[in-house]
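Example 9 (inverse folding). The structure is encoded as follows.
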């Protein structure tokens, strides 16, 4: 770990030789993406605070986020502020990828994308299908042609599944979810990233709003004087293998708060970090942590994904629980269908395996009744 300029902390992005800011700017949550001046102001404030990793995607606000980033990058160049560009594609055939990247380069106002991600791998079946479309060969060509500098992948897969994505040596970095909510479920994936010495960018560092929305439940993260948001970010920063924590900023104040968290950051020792992780067990009682010991359903039900879905009801406004669960299945889990939960025969194997003592069978019954979002 090395400090360079201002108070920002910079780490190696895998074996690429690039030094990236520990705090990254995510372009998926602008409060008003149509107010380009305010959005660019946010990007400039982050860059002046030392942030040099800026991540967006064509699906954020229907390409509007990439357009804003293009204006922000242009202003950064004028001011001599360094930056790395990161974006993604959900396409898999060469013709579609080339059509997409052409538009992305134009919107971003750049000649080459620093970190280009194969986006949103929601299942191993999905991944195999995209490989058959020739996606890996296309990405290699894009790099050879100088349109892409580093080939990366973005995925919500859990436990050992993400390892399967990394068998192809083409990847130089991975974007995946990792927070105080789900670190247990992601540990195997995290270990695979470390083993491969890849750049590790973590998204949803605040658990998609779960942590700041439940400060009492996550109080175990806090040290004296810390607010819950700073505590959640610093918990991740205590992992030296993480290259970037990607925060989706809504407002300028959110940018300032994250920069302030960097300013006062003092790393925990390895022993202190393990103590915090141990405290998570009691704090997350009743919440599925995604350990996946239940992932042996004779009917092939994706229990871990359904339990992650049910967490939305427990952690957010219960009045909107069904709506939130439906949204989670549609957008986070790539169209996961509620009727699959109805295949449950109540054999009880999952209940017996659950380390959190959750009545999974009853939760599956409830999920099976959900209507599509």
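The amino acid assigned to each position is listed next.
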């Amino acid at each position: 770990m090395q400090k360079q300029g201002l108070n920002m902390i910079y780490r190696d992005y895998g074996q690429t030789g690039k030094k990236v800011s520990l705090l990254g700017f995510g372009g998926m949550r602008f409060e008003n993406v149509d107010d380009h001046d305010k959005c660019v102001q946010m990007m400039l404030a982050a860059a002046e605070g030392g942030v040099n990793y800026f991540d967006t995607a064509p699906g954020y606000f229907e390409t509007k986020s990439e357009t804003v980033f293009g204006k922000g990058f242009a202003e950064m160049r004028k001011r001599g502020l360094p930056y790395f560009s990161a974006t993604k594609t959900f396409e898999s055939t060469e013709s579609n990828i080339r059509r997409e990247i052409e538009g992305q380069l134009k919107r971003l106002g750049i000649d080459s994308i620093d970190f280009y991600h194969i986006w949103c791998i929601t299942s191993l079946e999905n991944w195999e299908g995209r490989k058959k479309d020739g996606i890996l060969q296309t990405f290699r060509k894009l790099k050879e042609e100088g349109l892409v500098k580093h080939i990366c992948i973005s995925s919500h897969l859990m436990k050992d599944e993400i390892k399967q994505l990394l068998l192809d040596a083409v990847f130089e970095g991975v974007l995946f979810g990792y927070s105080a909510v789900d670190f247990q479920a992601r540990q195997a994936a995290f270990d695979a990233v470390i083993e491969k010495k890849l750049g590790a960018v973590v998204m949803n560092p605040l658990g998609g709003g779960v942590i700041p929305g439940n400060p009492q439940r996550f109080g175990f993260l806090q040290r004296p004087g810390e607010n819950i948001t700073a505590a959640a970010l610093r918990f991740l920063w205590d992992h030296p293998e993480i290259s970037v924590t990607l925060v989706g900023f809504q407002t300028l104040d959110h940018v300032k708060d994250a920069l302030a968290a960097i300013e006062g950051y003092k790393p925990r020792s390895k022993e202190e970090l393990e103590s915090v992780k141990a405290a998570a067990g009691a704090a997350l009682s009743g919440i599925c942590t995604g350990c996946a010991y239940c992932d042996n359903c004779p009917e092939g039900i994706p229990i871990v994904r359904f339990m992650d879905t049910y967490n939305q009801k427990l952690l957010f406004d219960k009045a909107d629980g069904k709506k939130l669960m439906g949204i989670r299945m549609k957008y986070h889990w790539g169209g996961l269908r509620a009727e699959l939960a109805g295949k449950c025969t109540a054999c009880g194997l999952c209940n017996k395996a659950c380390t959190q003592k959750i009545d999974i069978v009853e939760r599956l019954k409830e999920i099976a009744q959900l209507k599509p979002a």
